[in-house]
Amino acid sequence: MNEHYELKICGLVRNLKKVQVAQNLVIASFVMLGDTQLIEKCADALIEKMKVISGIDMLVCPEAKGIPLTHALAVRLGVDYVVARKSVKGYMENPITSEVKSITTTEKQIIVIDEIDAAKLEGKSVCVVDDVVSTGGSLRSVEDVLSKTGCTVISKVAVLLEEGGYSGEDLIYLQKLPVFPV
Q1: I need a labelling partner for 152 at 20 to 30 A (CA). Which of 42, 120, 126, 129 fits?
Q2: Quick one: which H or E segment has residue 21?
Q3: How far apart are CA 122 and CA 70, in angstroms?
Q4: Secondary structure (3-state) at 9
Q5: What is the pLDDT of residues 30-89, one digit of tens each?
Q6: Contacts by 3-8 with C-beta closer than 8 Å and gap 24+?
């Protein structure tokens, strides 16, 4: 088996290492962190696709790999963003949580928004941003937490839709990423 998958996206080529994440599943590991050129080009391409959405007040992303993309999109849209954390931090008062099972994480995780961020989101029209959507578990958990903040999720965007079971019908994305059954 080839140990890498060649991803061609936004005029760039990246060789993604194939990683076994389950007994019967290998994925191409897509990590944008630190890849400024990739983040900027993907943000430009996503903004073009997002033109069909009007009225985005804020962006929300799950921690951590989608944070630089979310920042780049927020700058282009002229809005702020909130990062849904993956653990309760000592500074948080009255955290809002939801449990998530991710294809790339062996243990269950939680998604957390503290009361300060929840107050920023109240009454806002929100777009959820992620780098890769696979099963949709992280998206559902973020939406679950957001449903308790008084905001309205009006759109969801990602760079890649991994062939992990999420239909993608309600997701704006740049392209699909295959998975590799073992």
Answers
A1: 42
A2: strand 12-22
A3: 19
A4: strand
A5: 999 999 999 999 999 999 999 999 999 999 999 889 999 999 999 999 999 999 998 888
A6: 4/28, 5/177, 5/178, 5/180, 7/177
Does pLDDT of 107 surpass 80?
A: no
User: Cα separation of 128 and 94, whole Å?
Assistant: 22
Is residue 39 classed as helix, strand or coil in its secondary structure?
helix
Distance CA 42, CA 37 (A): 9
Q: The whole model's pTM is what?
A: 0.92
What distance, in Å, lies between the first and last C-alpha atoms of the chain?
10
User: Where do the H-state alpha helices sit in 1-157?
Assistant: 36-50, 67-77, 115-121, 137-146
